[in-house]
Amino acid sequence: MHYEEVEFLRKRARTFWENGDYLMKLGKYDVASFHFEQAVQLELNAIILEYSGQKYRTHSIRKLLLAIGKLFGEEERVENFIREHRNDIKALEDAYTDTRYEPVVYEDYDAEAVKKTAETVLEFARSLVREDA
Question: Which of 13, 16, 48, 69 could lock onto 43 through a cystine, CB 3.0 to 4.6 A?
Fold first, then answer.
């Protein structure tokens, strides 16, 4: 198994999350949002690597979720989740690109929304793992 790599991804995800929280306190809402999105990407990749042994290269939260759905035979449930949270997931994905390449300004409520979506996505993905265990 790729235990060490999985743990590395999870540790890095936790670091990004902690940095996001710290940056929120500093009022750096755009960079905090980027960090929350990165934490989600890394954790989803850790799940895929842990349960498939494969690395999945994409920056798309939706594609990562779909890969996890396929992995656990929950494609329809994942598709429904994505449909239900479409706008929020899009905002989370936008935090990856917009905060790096676009002259956007995030307010505290924007970053809080990104963080809440990140929490929702992670909880959903983890629920798929728990139900399979």
Answer: 13
